[in-house]
Design brief:
By secondary structure, the chain is of the alpha/beta class. It folds into two domains: 3-88, Rossmann fold, CATH 3.40.50.1980; 118-126 and 133-250, Nitrogenase molybdenum iron protein domain (Rossmann fold, 3-Layer(aba) Sandwich), CATH 3.40.50. It is 43% helix and 14% strand. It contains eleven helices and nine strands. The strands form two sheets. It has a five-stranded parallel beta sheet, with helices on both faces. α7 links the parallel β6 (136-141) and β7 (165-167). It starts with a strand and ends in a 5-residue tail after the last helix.
C-alpha cells in the first residue's frame, strides 16, 4: 500500500499503526516520529501541497484533515482519481472513531482498535474523576499579536473541559477568536494556558501577559500544543495531560 499524509498527527498515526514503511510522502510539518519521517519525501505544507507530485506518486490513499487542508486540494486530488480519507474529529470520542476508520482503510484494524480503546478508556476515567470536582475556568492562547484563543468547537477545548475545565471563551462564534487582553483580565480565568504551537509561547511571555491583563503571572502556564491539539495516537497522552493541567490549576493557591 502507498500512503500520503497531509496532516502531521495523521502521519504519526500511520507509523503507530505499523504502516510507516508504506508512507511515500508527507508534509513539511510532519515531524513525528523523527526517525521515521526523516526518510519520507516532503511535498509542501498542509495548505500548499504539491498536488501534481502527489498524483505522480500514485498513492492508494491520501489522508487529509478538514481544518489542516484545503478543499480545493482535496477536489483536485479526487478529480485525478486519487482516493482520500478526510477527517475532522472535534473531541476524544470522534478521534477514537477516526482512528478505527483510518486503521480499517490501511488494513491495520487490530492496531487501530488498541489505540481507540485506550482513548475511550482514558476518557471514561477522566470524566468520572472530574464529575464531582469543581470546574476550573480557563483560557487557552494559541497566537500572539493578535492574541487568539479557542471556542467550544475545538479539540483542545473538548479535552480540557472533559477533564473538569470551563472555557471562558466557549461561546464565541469564531473557532479561534481574537481576544482583548483587558477583557481577558476582567474575566479572570483561574489559568491561562499558553500553547507551544502554532505560536511558540515561552516563559518570557508570562510576565508580558501579566502586565497586559493585570493577572498574576502564576496564572499563566506554558502548555504542550501537540498534546492538546494533535488527534490520533497522541490523544491518549493528551487526555491525561489535559487532566493534569486542570488538576494543577484547581490546586494552585498562588494564582
Amino acid at each position: 500500500m502507498r500512503i500520503v499524509s497531509l496532516c502531521p498527527s495523521l502521519t504519526e498515526l500511520v507509523f503507530d499503526l505499523g504502516r510507516g514503511a508504506d508512507l511515500v510522502a508527507a508534509t513539511d510539518w510532519c515531524v513525528h516520529p523523527v526517525d521515521g519521517v526523516a526518510g519520507v519525501e516532503k511535498i509542501g505544507g498542509t495548505k500548499t501541497p504539491r498536488v501534481a507530485r502527489i498524483v505522480e506518486l500514485a498513492p492508494d490513499l491520501v489522508l487529509m484533515n478538514e481544518e489542516e487542508n484545503r478543499v480545493e486540494d482535496a477536489d483536485a486530488l479526487r478529480a485525478a482519481g486519487v482516493s482520500l480519507h478526510v477527517s475532522m474529529p472535534r473531541d476524544a470520542a470522534a478521534t477514537a472513531q477516526m482512528v478505527r476508520s483510518i486503521a480499517a482503510a490501511v488494513e491495520r484494524a487490530p492496531e487501530g482498535e488498541r489505540i481507540a480503546a485506550d482513548i475511550e478508556a482514558r476518557t471514561r476515567r477522566v470524566v468520572a474523576s472530574a464529575a464531582n470536582a469543581r470546574r476550573v475556568r480557563w483560557a487557552y492562547l494559541i497566537w500572539r499579536k493578535p492574541y487568539m484563543s479557542v471556542n467550544a468547537d475545538t479539540f483542545a477545548s473538548a479535552l480540557l473541559d472533559q477533564a473538569g475545565g470551563a472555557n471562558i471563551f466557549a461561546a464565541r462564534a469564531e473557532r479561534y477568536p481574537e481576544i482583548d487582553m483587558a477583557e481577558l483580565g476582567a474575566l479572570a480565568p483561574e489559568v491561562v494556558l499558553l500553547c507551544t504551537e502554532p505560536f511558540p509561547f515561552q516563559d518570557k511571555h508570562r510576565e508580558e501577559l501579566a502586565q497586559l491583563t493585570g493577572l498574576a503571572s502564576g496564572r499563566f502556564v506554558i502548555a504542550d500544543g501537540e498534546l492538546l491539539s494533535w488527534h490520533g495516537s497522541r490523544t491518549p497522552r493528551g487526555i491525561d495531560y489535559a487532566e493534569s493541567l486542570i488538576v494543577a490549576a484547581r490546586g494552585n493557591p498562588t494564582a
